[in-house]
Amino acid sequence: MRAAASVAMMSLVSLSLFVLVLPQCGEDSSESAKPWEIPDRGGRPLEETDPLPEIDEDDIEVEIVCGQFALPKYPWLDGRTYLIGEPGKEYAIRIINRSKAAVRAVVWVDGVNPSTLKFEDESSGWLIGEGKHAAIEGFWLSDNVLGTFVFTSPEDSLAAHEGLPRERVGEIRVAAYPGWIGMLHQHRNLAALGVGADKSQEPSGELGTGIGRRIVLSRGGSRLSSGVTFERAEDRAPVVKALYYDTPQSLCRRGVWRFCR
Question: What is the pTM assigned to this prediction?
Answer without folding.
Answer: 0.73
